[in-house]
Design goal:
Structural class: mainly alpha
Shape: globular
Distance between the termini: 65 Å
Number of helices: 19
Radius of gyration: 22 Å
Largest sheet: 2 strands, antiparallel
Number of strands: 2
Number of domains: 1
Helix content: 55-70%
Order of helices and strands: HHHHHHHHHHHHHHHEEHHHH
Length: 452
C-alpha cells in the first residue's frame, strides 16, 4: 500500500510544470522556516513567536527581501538567526540550486526534469550547459561570500569579541550577497553606525552589486580574459547597472545635500559615500547607512523607481530587472524614431522579448497598484510610505520608511504574498496558476486602432 501511494505521489509530482514546482518548493521552504522560527529556542524571550510574525520573517528571508516586523538582532537567538541565514542562502541561490548541490556531492545524475526546473529557476532560454552554470553559481557564491566574511570579521573584530565578529561577518556576507538586507545589529538601525566607514561600505556595495548582476554576467566576466568578448545580455546588464548607480548617486547627492536628517549632517566624503550606498542598495539589497524615513519625498519616490527596476535576471535580486527596463526604453526610442526593430549593441531583439518585457512590467505595476490601494485602507499611514513599502516587498529590497513593524495582520499577509510573487516573478507565478497554451492554428484578420 505504501509503495503504491508513493508511486501515485511521484506520478502527480511529475505532472506538475516547472513553474508549479518552483512555487510549491518555495512555499514549502517558507512554511518549514516559519515553523522553526516559532520554536521557543528561536526567540530571545523564551516564548514562541506568533505564527504570523514567524511566517512574515520566513517569507522575507526566503524571498531575500529584508522587511521585518521583529528586530532580527534582538528578537531572535543564535539558532533563530542561523535559521534566517540558511533561508536567505536557499532563497537567494534557489532551492533547486541547493538540491543540485547535494546531488553533485552524492554524485547522483541530474535528470531531464531537474534540468527543466533549473532552466526555469535560472531564467535560461535552453537547458544547454545548465548544470555547468549551477556549478559556477555555487563556486562563485562560496568564494565571494567567504572572502567578504573574512574581511568583515577582521573589521568588526575591532568593535566586538572575535567569535561574535566572525558570526556577524558570515551572516552579513550571506545576507548582502543574496541581496536580502537582513542585519543583526539590533534596533532596526541596519548599517547606520558605519556611515563613515569606507571598508564596510565598499565591501557591502561589492556584495550587493555582484549578487545583483546575475551569475551569467559573473561567468562572462570571469571568462573575459580568455574569450575577450561579452554576450549581449552581459553588455546590457553592465551598462544599465552602471548607469543606474551613477545617476542614482547623483540624484540622491543633489536632493539630500542640505537635508540635515540625512546627508546634510555629514562631511563631503560622507555625503559621496552615502549617496553611492543608497543608490546601490535599492538594487535590491535593503541595507541603509542613513535614515530612509528622513529622506525628502522626492528622494523617496526616486528610490521607489530604482527598487521597481531592481537587479538583473539570474541573480539573487528582484524587481522587473535591468534588461526588462532597457528593452522598454529601447522600444520607446525605436517608436519615436519610426523604426520597427529594437536594436541594442547592434543586435535586433525578437518581438517576443519585447512582449515579455511589456507583460512583466504591466503585471508588476498592476500588482503594486492593487496592493497599495488595499493597504491604504487597512493601514494608518500616508500613501507614499505605503507605495514605498509595497514596491520594496515586490522588488525584494527590504528598505522601509518604518511602516513594516506597525502593519496589521492583513497588511502582513498582503506583503507576504507580494514578496512571494516578487521573488518568483509575476510571469512565473502566472504560468504556475494557468499554464500557457500552445500556439494557435490560425490567425485573425489584422485590425487597426487609433492610439495617442
Amino acid at each position: 500500500m505504501a509503495s503504491q501511494f508513493r508511486r501515485i505521489s511521484e506520478f502527480k509530482f511529475l505532472k506538475l510544470s516547472p513553474p508549479q514546482i518552483l512555487v510549491l518548493g518555495f512555499a514549502s521552504i517558507i512554511l518549514i522556516g516559519a515553523l522553526l522560527l516559532t520554536l521557543p529556542i528561536s526567540s530571545t524571550s523564551g516564548n514562541s513567536v506568533e505564527f504570523i510574525d514567524a511566517l512574515f520573517t520566513s517569507t522575507s528571508a526566503t524571498c531575500v527581501t529584508g522587511l521585518v516586523v521583529l528586530d532580527t538582532g534582538t528578537s531572535f537567538t543564535i539558532f533563530g538567526k542561523t535559521v534566517i541565514m540558511i533561508l536567505i542562502q536557499i532563497g537567494g541561490l534557489g532551492f533547486m540550486t541547493m538540491a543540485t548541490l547535494f546531488s553533485l556531492v552524492l554524485k547522483r545524475k541530474i535528470s531531464l526534469r531537474d534540468r527543466l526546473i533549473l532552466q526555469e529557476a535560472m531564467n535560461q532560454g535552453s537547458m544547454e550547459g545548465i548544470v555547468r552554470l549551477i556549478r559556477r553559481v555555487l563556486i562563485y557564491s562560496l568564494v565571494i561570500e567567504g572572502c567578504a566574511a573574512v574581511l568583515l570579521s577582521i573589521r568588526w573584530a575591532f568593535d566586538m569579541p572575535l567569535g561574535k565578529a566572525i558570526y556577524y561577518g558570515i551572516f552579513h556576507a550571506v545576507s548582502m550577497f543574496n541581496n536580502a538586507g537582513f542585519d543583526i545589529f539590533g534596533d532596526f538601525r541596519s548599517l547606520t553606525d558605519y556611515v563613515y566607514d569606507p571598508l564596510v561600505n565598499i565591501i557591502v556595495m561589492f556584495l550587493i552589486v555582484s549578487g545583483g548582476i546575475g551569475f551569467i554576467v559573473m561567468s562572462d566576466l570571469v571568462e573575459f580574459r580568455v574569450t575577450r568578448r561579452l554576450s549581449l545580455h552581459s553588455k546590457v546588464v553592465l551598462s544599465t547597472s552602471t548607469g543606474l548607480i551613477l545617476i542614482g548617486a547623483l540624484v540622491i547627492f543633489i536632493f539630500e545635500f542640505t537635508n540635515t536628517r540625512t546627508l546634510g549632517s555629514l562631511n563631503f566624503g560622507g555625503k559621496i559615500l552615502s549617496a553611492f550606498f543608497q543608490s546601490v542598495s535599492p538594487r535590491t539589497a535593503g541595507a541603509n547607512t542613513v535614515d530612509i524615513a528622513g529622506l525628502r519625498q522626492a528622494t523617496q519616490f526616486f528610490i521607489v523607481i530604482l527598487m521597481f527596476i531592481g537587479a538583473s535576471p539570474g541573480s539573487t535580486g528582484g524587481g522587473i530587472k535591468t534588461t526588462t527596463f532597457t528593452m522598454m526604453i529601447g522600444a520607446v526610442i525605436a517608436m519615436l524614431r519610426g523604426r520597427e526593430d529594437v536594436v541594442l549593441f547592434r543586435y535586433r531583439l525578437a518581438q517576443e522579448r519585447i512582449y515579455k518585457a511589456l507583460t512583466i512590467t504591466l503585471l508588476a505595476l498592476l500588482l503594486i497598484a492593487s496592493v497599495s490601494m488595499i493597504l491604504s485602507t487597512t493601514e494608518d499611514s500616508n500613501f507614499l510610505a505605503i507605495l514605498f513599502e509595497t514596491t520594496s516587498a515586490f522588488a525584494t529590497v527590504g528598505l522601509t520608511m518604518g511602516l513594516t513593524p506597525e502593519l496589521s495582520a492583513i497588511g502582513k499577509i498582503l506583503l507576504c504574498l507580494t514578496m512571494f510573487a516578487g521573488r518568483l516573478g509575476p510571469l512565473t507565478l502566472a504560468y504556475a496558476l494557468g499554464p500557457k497554451q500552445g500556439k494557435p492554428l490560425y490567425k485573425y484578420p489584422e485590425g487597426k486602432i487609433i492610439i495617442g
